[in-house]
Amino acid sequence: MMSRILAAAAGLSLLLAPTTLVAATPTSAAAASAIRIDKARIDRTLADMVASGRASGVSALLFQDGREVYFGTSGFADREAKRPMARDTLAQIFSMTKPVTGVALMQLWEQGKFGLDDPLARYLPEFGETKVFAGTDAAGKPILKAPDRPILIRDILRHTAGFGYGPGPSFPEQEFDRLDPIPLKLDIDLAELGRRLAQVPLLFEPGTRWHYSAAVDVQALLVEKLSGQRFEDYVQAHVLQPLGMRETGWTQPEARFGRLAAVYAKKPGGTLDRVPDTDNRRMNFAPKALTMGGAGLASTVDDYMRFARMLLNGGSLDGVRILKPSTVKLMATDQLDPRVTDRLWLPGKGNGGFGIDFFVRTGQPKDAQESRGALGEFFWDGMASTLFWVDPANKLTAVFFVQTVPFDGTLHRDLRKAVYGPDYLGPKGD
What we know:
- With 430 residues, this protein is α+β, with helices and mostly antiparallel strands.
- It has two domains: 16-108 and 231-420, 3-Layer(aba) Sandwich (Beta-lactamase), CATH 3.40.710.10; 115-227, Methane Monooxygenase Hydroxylase, Chain G, domain 1 (Up-down Bundle).
- It has helices spanning 2-9, 39-51, 97-110, 153-158, 171-179, 190-199, 215-227, 231-240, 277-285, 301-312, 325-331, 409-420; strands at 57-64, 67-78, 83-84, 91-92, 132-136, 142-145, 264-266, 272-274, 298-299, 316-317, 320-321, 352-354, 359-361, 378-381, 387-391, 396-402, 404-405.
- The strands form five sheets. The protein has an eight-stranded antiparallel sheet with strand order 3-2-1-16-15-14-13-12. Strands 8-7-17 form a three-stranded mixed sheet, with no helix packed on it.
């Protein structure tokens, strides 16, 4: 079931720490090798994704220099109904919700509502009592202690707070499972999520490791606290509607259900099994108490491209300013201290680090297996294998929709190879 898939995804992890910041942008966009969009090559790649059984349907949209340079699809949004993947197909984007939440919170930072190095507990007092797991005693009982330093807001922006994201073998992960801060029924509000999560011991001292986590849901709670609005209402009013993202939301009108792509789960034998429609309907077409900051949006490729283009343009699109250019640059700058060497699966994303709700490329691809990309790009993806990226060096943005679980990084590798060419390395930087 989709709810179980979502719970499994919550077990992933990320990490970060303060201090040294590495600017990810190249010295100049002109330093990039020119790339030529080969429509036929991308078409073949999308077709192979479906023919190889890795996806039921896929779509990709590319903009460069402010204009559309590619749109293509292959396969079915609904395989059983023979409904093809289309431009207006709605897809669940899961963790591609996270950058939207980050943009909303950074708007409030621009307004002086908080400082990046403020203790989180200054605004959400419940986190002032959160303990750190420090191992077990001779009797096997968990040792819990006050953290060496408070959780900072900066930590929840870069997954270095010490939070987990689901059940697991350690005591904090067992407590996460018991306290259930992100219940499958989504029947609590963000305030209750915060109260429960604050009782879960931290996996590590704040700022010492990168661990993918429920921190972006805490970002959403902070948006509510600082704005005085429901999180979903704030994002709609200050991000989605101003950008003209009219078909993006946590809750969709029932009339759009026929345009929602089905989700397919890949089985060990390689077959794709359809996830029950009842789960898709619950996620996006039924009332729910919990609007997550870390997941939950459904969108179209054109809607999400407007978000990506806004970021490429330094925070504005079509005369509407969402963020200052300096804020976008901050979000697209690696925030990880070099001493943070424990980074879970983050290195598998490429040669880079992590900014504010984005992976940030800080160097050229290291080998042929690494996804192609340019120094200075920033991106994130979703559990159902969706992806977007922003490439300032080539003035390029890309949105890729697919609904395959578990996450399949080979789809991203192949798409990027088709967009850039297999030998592309991009600028070297300084």
